[in-house]
Structures are given as C-alpha cells and as structure tokens.
Amino acid sequence: MIKVAIGQDSHRFEPDSSEKRLILGGVLIEGSPGLEGNSDADVVIHALTNAISGITCVNILGEEADRMCREGITDSRAYLKAAMNHMKKDSRILHVSISIEALRPRLSPFIEKIRMSLAGLLGIDRGSIGITATTGEGLSEFGKGNGIFCTVILTADVPE
Prior knowledge:
This protein is an alpha+beta fold.
C-alpha cells in the first residue's frame, strides 16, 4: 500500500551572539546562528520525523523527544531513528520532497550535503530526495530572517 504523509516544523533563530550552531538535515551550516529549541532544533529532520509519524501514526516529537532531551539526547537524528523504528517491516521510503523557507542563510551551497546526509539516515538513494529552498520574499517571519520553516512530503510503500 502506498502512503503519503506531510510533516512540518519551524524554529526561531537564537540571538546572533549565541554559540549554538545551525544544523539542517544533519549537516552543520556555518555562518548562521543556531535555532532555538531543547534539541539541536534541526527543522529539516524534525519535519521529516513528523512525516514518518504521519505514516506510522506514532508521534515522536513531543513526549518521546522531550524524554530523550531530558536524558541528554539532543541530536535530532536520534528522533528520526526512533520514528523509523515504528515503520512496519519491509516498508520502503520511495520519495521525500523537502521545501525550506528561510531568508538566511543562503542554502543552495548545502543542498547536496543535506541530500547525502538524509539518504544515509533513511537508507535510500539521494535521487529519491528532492530539496527546494525559498526566501519567502519577506512575507513571513521566515522570509524576514527570523527563523526557518520546513515542510516535508514523504511517500512510502507499506505492507498491509
């Protein structure tokens, strides 16, 4: 059975003086402050985790991720792994489409690295991961440079 799910997430930037680093899709993005959150606040992986939760119907971000944060697990890749553990045996992720809205930083130099990182985390070919980025033309808080918003659409083949 083919299932499609959507996930989204957003976070504000830390103050420019913060030492927290920006992580997107498991990739360190230099030259920009990190995002506010208990974890590394990786909006790409959070949106992807939410999309997988849409497939499995088991929410990870919330109580489960909060518990993990209290235990000192702040790497969002661990939340993604927890979500993947709820996928039925023999499920296959077929395609992931990611749209990121952010005025800053300029993301195009990092898109290939993010695709490769996510392909490794998901165990799929990077050709099955599409990423687009937009500045949002200043129309939203993200387009004004106050944070980053991410939407993910995930398609999976899940045995009945």
